[in-house]
Amino acid sequence: MFERKEDIFFEHFQLIVENLKKAARLLREDIRDLQNTESYAENIKLLEDRGDQYTHAIFKALNKTFVTPLEREDIMQLTVKLDDVLDGMEASADRLDLYGIRETDAYMQLFARLAENCIDEIGAAIQFLVKKKLPNIQKHTFRINDLENEADQLYRESIKILFTQNKDAIKIIQLKEVYEILESILDACEDVADVLEGIVMRS
Q: Which InterPro entries does the annotation name (predicted)?
């Protein structure tokens, strides 16, 4: 499928996206009932480890490849920002298990759904990047920005409800951190969109 040496970057971007999609699906399933958080956290950690391998492979290829399909800085930034998305999902699953949270709520489920939708948009944008159809990327980056704005609103609402309707101080601290980490996944997705926007603008 990829014949030229420099296409290893596009190949690994696609592998990273597929890995992200798997992690997003697992996180959504985890949050749906929170009865097997340890298992989900372990499986998402395995995907995070695999993502690190893809990241290292890209950086290694950068050091060995003279001609790259994108600017080196763009490849590095896109790789790092994609990895940040996966780190956020791994951290979310870890906290849910660490704190022994066994009751889901609408906010966590909505965050997980927004994250999964965002990652689908990233995947579509990466496909156009691979095909070198750069103008088609923007409709997906715009959608990512919209989803991130939804997550911002959701975070504000979740924190307001948490502090006004909950009297358990420990639970407040735990859920606040979980909401923050879940929202950070969408922030990381927006960072990916910003890198992609930059690539389009410079093309």
A: PhoU-like_sf (IPR038078), Put_Phosphate_transp_reg (IPR018445), UPF0111_domain (IPR052912)
Q: What is the 3-state secondary structure (H, E, C) of the chain?
A: CCCCHHHHHHHHHHHHHHHHHHHHHHHHHHHHHCCCHHHHHHHHHHHHHHHHHHHHHHHHHHHHCCCCCCCHHHHHHHHHHHHHHHHHHHHHHHHHHHCCCCCCCHHHHHHHHHHHHHHHHHHHHHHHHHCCCHHHHHHHHHHHHHHHHHHHHHHHHHHHHHHHHCCCHHHHHHHHHHHHHHHHHHHHHHHHHHHHHHHHHCC
Q: Consecutive sets of 10 residues in the chain, 203 residues long: mean pLDDT of each?
A: 67 98 99 97 98 98 91 97 99 98 97 99 98 97 99 98 95 98 99 98 87
CATH of 5-201, one of 1.20.58.220, 2.40.128.20, 1.10.3720.10, 3.30.1250.10: 1.20.58.220
CA distance 90 to 81: 14
Domain ranges of the chain: 5-201
On whether the CB atoms of residues 159 and 41 are closer than 8 A, the answer is: no
